[in-house]
Structure formats: structure tokens, C-alpha cells
What we know:
alpha+beta, Signal recognition particle alu RNA binding heterodimer, srp9/1, 9-stranded mixed beta sheet, 20 helices, 30 strands, 33% helix, elongated
Amino acid sequence: METDDIRSAAKKYLAQGFSPIPSEGKKPLVKWEEWQKRRPTEKEIDLWWETWPTANVGVITGSISGITVIDIDGEKGNESLRSFGIALPPTRIVQTPHGWHMWYQYDPSYPTKAGVLPGVDIRNEGGFIVAPPSSIGGAEYSVQIDVEIAKIPPFSELFKNGNGSGRKEMPKDPSWVVGLLKEGAPEHSRNAQATRLAGYLRNKNLGIEEAMEIMRVYAARCSPPMEDQELRTTLESVYRYAIDFASAKVADIPEVTEEGTAIIYSWPQYGAKIVLDQLSYETEGLYCEIEVMVDFPGFAPLHHGPVRFNLSATRTKAELARYLRNLFQFDWQRILDTVSRMEIYRQRTPGPTVDLRGPIEGDSNLWALSPFVLHKETTVLFGDGNSGKSMTALAILLSLQLQTDTFFGKKIPKKYRGLYLDWEASENSHKRRLHPLLRGHGLEAADPVEYLFMMRSIPDSLRQLKFRIDRDGIDFLVIDSAAIACGGEPEKAENAAKTFAALRSLGTTNLIIAHQPKYTEGVDKPFGSVMWHNLARSTVEVRSKKEWDSPNVTVGYYHRKSNYGYLERPFSLGFEFGNETTKISPASISSTPELTDKLSTKEKVVLFLRENSQGTAQEIAPAIDQHPETVRSVLKRSPATFQQIAGPINEATQWKLA
């Protein structure tokens, strides 16, 4: 099935009032709790299928989509319905790879439950189904009977009473246990299913030898059969850690690991894990987003969150512990107290010191592309709207990714893999820049030029970005632009600081695009807090000059800050826009008054001598609109920059660049 077909189906489901999400096989690719409360937008659907082009489409069941679904597993499910005398009303029916989904109008009396009968599951509030035209293993989901979605009688009437027949009691053992003992499991899943079955038997208080005899029945029916030694190893592993969760007292110190900005506390012996992310100190204490997970053989998995949580508040911890106990009996109060205390201490304790006499780590070539990009650092490119910032940033990304000197005439010491993060425009607007730029210079991009439209700030997107960076080998980011990417008011220092701290944690080389404040004499910094200038290792101002009745632009670049070495001299590039091509070439900045009016007198003298090789103060002065005595004074005060050619200093003295 083509990507666009699946994406179109997702948008069609959305238009019909359902809440669609992407899935890999039957596994949701997004944390789907959010989509139980709100439906996605078309833009979010486009983003998902650009990220996972081979994804299936699923639909959240329950009130958000207005549907309750009965999942019938082939003939086994049909036999259960017949045995219990249950006649389901005619409705829309979807053929699945192993059975049928019967879609009904949402009825809140139905639980979301697996094995309500052997081979019969219910998907309702909090549930999820794979939907047409998805496919798994080459087997497609398709609409078998396309009629209006019907109403269904209440659960207590249809299922609990067996449709009035009263012929059988509901089964006590889960259908998956019966299924495994009858049918076994294929090779790719037999170990996982053996672990699950062993946990179930352990929690029935069976001894290990009793469980072994039962498990041999399962092992013999697997394809291929499991060896006795492999089976016993699985059983011993489960029985080693199996516990009575309801009465367990968790005194063990958890393992602590970091994953991007997330801190993970885990107890492998219990299958328990708590993930903390988006940590920030606020007036009331240390806040975070918390996720709680338990996946232990024989128990239904628990996954709660992420939810906002105050690690410093006793009442908040007690409330969450009570809530979790209702879902899964465990020693939640002790676990939450342990995690909160350890994380607060961890935040208060500085990391280990390092000896600065040690070797410098990483690439020894600091400049990836001077003055725009410093390796493993963050730089800022700022200017007025429509001054050429985004086009320049795209040319920088191509220079690094193609390792070409075509655009800026500078050797690129290292090849990078870029990602353009955009909060302002659209993919098409950047495609309209990229394709002519490549054609205009006869270039081809062998690797994908990655683009991602962002809906959340950099600090709020760290885990997702870290995942993409690690998966795709990304080491250069363009952030377009600072005012939105920071997630708050750019005038506040804390928002700039959070953004730079977040980028540091990613370990990438970064170029931030920022806007220009209203012109103030002597102020050449990005819009917002002074921290955007102070925390950047290099900043470059962009100004442009456009001609009447011409699409062509001359863009000037002014190096305003450098933490490493000298400031580069101002320079300019000409952008020539054709019908299907864009050409970038060197241009004279001194011949464009609009680009020189913000330069200092010294910078203007440098530009004159760079283009004319030498000159007297009398010759230089009218060219830069200054008095000869002012020019002569600048020349005399800067012997490291200007060199007298011969003779005493007077009106006839010739000067050149040192």
C-alpha cells in the first residue's frame, strides 16, 4: 500500500469524526493517550507519515471516535459467540488478517478488555484498532460489509446474560493462555510468550516443576518446538524474580540511566520503570513530566503518563500512589518517595570535575564554515525579515552536507548530516528555495535534505529530537527561528538560556536564525534578551539590498561576535534568481551604500583598501563619505591593520592593508 493511500485514509477517518494515529503493525507509533482526548490535525497527520512513511493507520476507540469495536478472532471467536448464544447486531464489518472487527456506535457500558470470551476482545475507551487499508505481513484490513455503524445493546444485557440463554458461565482463564497451550507460538515470539505464560503460572502459585510440565505442552506445539533446556532457563528466570506485588516492599536502590533529557529509574527484578523528563525548578518545587511503567510476566502491563508532577510535594506523591494502586497493586508510595528524593539530590549535586590539562576532545578544526558555523557549538544568524536568512541557512546546510565550497568559496573540513527545524514556513517554501539552488550550481544531493516542521519548542521536543538525531546520524541543526523555538518570550533571559542548554544536551552543531530588533545606534544583536548574543559563540548580522523591478538581491554579512579568534571582515554575496535556478556569487559590499552604512570608519577603510590595494587618506575619504583627517587618524591608530608604504605621514602617504 502506498504511503499517500494510507495518509489519505487517515485524513478521511479524521473527516468522519474518528481519531486516527500511525502504527507499526499493531503497535502505535505515538503515545496515544493524547489522541484519546483530542483528534489530530491534518498537519500532524502529514508530519507522522513523513516521519513513518510505511506506517499503518489505526483508530482510537471509545468516546473520541464514537465507536465500540468487537474483535472476533476467526472461528474460535465465532464459536464462543455461538456457544454463549450471543447474536451481534448487523453493522460495519472489517476483515482482519485473522478475523473480523465489528464497529458499533460508542456505548460506555463496554469495557476495553482482552479475552472477554475465548477469541473475543472488546476495544472501547482507551482502546485502539488497526484500520483499513492497513496490512500486516501482506494480509490486508478491508471493509467487508460497508453499512451504517449500528447501535449495540448494553454490555450487561448482551454479554453477562449470554443474550438471555444462560447456557454457560464466562471463562475464568484468559483466552491467550488457552491459545498458547493449544497452538504454541512461532519462532520469533515463542520466548516472549513462554516468559508471559511462566509468569501467569507463577502467579497461580504453581511450583516450578508443575509449571514445567504444563510449559512442555506449550513448548511441543511451538514452531519449531522449544528445547527443554531453553524452557527451563526461561522458567528459572521468571521464578527468580516473581513476587506477590500486592505485599512486596521495594527497598532496592533503582538503576539510574539517562536518555537525552530523560532520567530513567528502573527496577528490572520487578519490571518497573519510572521516567522523568522536562525537569524545572518552580516556586513550589522541582517539577517534571513523569511516566510510570510496569511490564512483568503474568500481569497486564501498566503505562501511566506522561503527566505533570511535583517531586517536592508530599501530597502530590500520595495522590499519585493511591491512583496507581487502583490500577496495579504495588509499593508505589515507597517507589515515588525513593525516586523523588534521589532526583532532588541528583539535581542539587554538581557533576564531577575535569582536569583542563587533559587533551581536547573531538574535532580539532573549530570552524565548520567561518563565520557561520562552529563545530559542536551554537551560532546565531540574525537580520530583518526578508533579508535572506533562510536562504543563507539552507545554503550553509548544503555546504556542510555536500562538503562543497560552491556557495561561500570556503573549504569545508568535515561532512555533516543536516536537519532543518522550522516553526515559521512550510516544506514547500523550502523546496522552492532548495531545487533552484541545486540546479543553479549543477549540484545533486545524494543524501536526503531533512526538513521537519515543528509544533513544540526545542526544550519541549528534546526526546523526540534526540531519537531522530541518533537514528538518522544528524549532527547539524538549523533552528528557524529563535522567537518561536524558545517556547516563550524571547525577551526573557530564561527562555534563551533553556534553549541553549537544550541544544548543548543534543551534542549537535547548531545554527539559530533570529530576527533583528528595531535599529538602534551601536546595537548589533539579535532580537530579544541579550543572552541570545552572549550565549552564542558567534553571531552574524544579515542585511540585504534589493533592486527595483528585479528579483536579484545583494546580501551583506557582518560578523558581530566571535568567542574564538578574530571577527571576519564584512562581505557580501549576490543572489540571482532565474525561472528555475538560483545562483549565488561574490559581490562588492563597498559598492552598495545600503550595506555599508552600518560599518565603522575602520571597516569602510578596510573594504576600500581590499578592493583598491592602496590609497591616500585624501583618496579614501570621499569614497567612504568621511573627512580626510578622520581617515588619517584611523590609519595611524591601527598599525596591525594598516601599513604605510613609504615616507612621512602626510597627504601624499600611500597606505595598504597590513
